[in-house]
């Protein structure tokens, strides 16, 4: 930990129960357990999968935000555990997005065969993946991992006292936003991997800003979070074209039915139009404009 951070941590500030390190992390664990319960209640629907993915992503963002206060080995171990659960839902979520977009395309393009064959083909593949994921959840392993993670959080020796947690969060958020602005300033919009990294950073910053604005009653943080939501949506539509088309090509690789292949081509074109529109919207707004809006705390 550098001297600047150490100096910040020495500044004593009164905090309430919502702004302690333990409560910060505990809230994220609780939300993930709640999302898992909702997943079962919704029987693995698109909404249930999406909410669980968001909860896991927020938990990882919270851990990343507080990472400097834990040992490197321990927090890296838990980051990998949580990441492994997110990875298991990635393709399910991609299929949900494709199904939703195919439904929109069918409505606007008057595709008579919307329900057959592509929609059924996507649904069949999704159900196969979902069955495997649901089986892994039903073993209770995610619950066990989250409980073990919470036990570690509450018992791990950290480098912060409760009355210096606010000082740490102020310093850390300012640092994160500064790094985000720099990454945005230097982004090459034609580099898909760079877009993906920036999108991830937008999400992490937004989750923390939403927490910060709620617990500190900070309207400026809330406005920045709204800006980042728009930015991440544009970046998502631009970046996701490549993996979505790859997935469609993989699914249709052994297909012999001409109608299915035609619909895969139509959906690929539809997704390309979404990516183009997002690119145009991002360009019209301008990255310099976003840099100006994403102000340092």
TrEMBL record:
Domain called CHAD: residue spans: 14-284
Organism equals Propionispira arboris
Q: What is this protein called?
A: CHAD domain-containing protein
Q: Which PROSITE patterns match?
A: CHAD
InterPro entries assigned? CHAD_dom, CHAD_dom_sf
